[in-house]
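Incident log entry.

Two folding requests arrived from the same account within the same minute. Monitoring flagged them as a possible duplicate submission, but the sequences differ. Recording both here for audit purposes.

Request one:
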Amino acid sequence: MKPSKRKLQIWLIEDNIVLPQQMPDGSLNKNYVHNHVFRASVNDPYGTPVTVAKAASETKQFDYTLAEKYKPENMSVVAVSQRCRWRSASHQKKNPIINLSVI
């Protein structure tokens, strides 16, 4: 297998956020529980370069200080590895997600 150049994005998401939500029927649920709310991009929003090769490993370390308003017990990490082919806006297309892990 030929090594593949990818971009790795690391995001923080939060669950169990109780806030009002307008429902599809138009009613207001004042105690709606929001889950999977994007809170931060831990690394560069465009991703950190990584190389993926069969039977190889690569280690990356990212440090992030969590804002006090977030509850650590409700936080999760999402890691996305994707092939990136940047094009001008007139030629852009969606790139498939190659690997998605929630820890």
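Request two (distinct sequence, not a duplicate):
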Amino acid sequence: MLELGWGLCGKMGINWECFKHMFMKPFTKLYPKEKVITYPKTRGRIKFDSSKCIGAKECVKNCPAYAIKYIGKGKLEFDMGKCIFCGLCVDMCPTGAISFEGKFDYASNKKEKLVVKS
């Protein structure tokens, strides 16, 4: 069978690896029909606790994508359309007011829906 498969692939100009994987179970999930398991350290949507915010603005200063707007003490806007999920805002917040949620499956055809207001 191996020799027959390799010979057939060679004559048809098909890569053996591609041919072999046509008959194997897929490695990926059929998302969104099958839910993907997220892990505790998954970088998803931003979670902001306004009661912990002291207005240090370290998150705004260190965001390379300029995705965070400071409105006032305890009030921030996160533009998830601009966010590159680098985690600097989470790391730099001195009080731990910013963290990541495991939720990653959000999308919109309107930019306004990607802005998380606190």
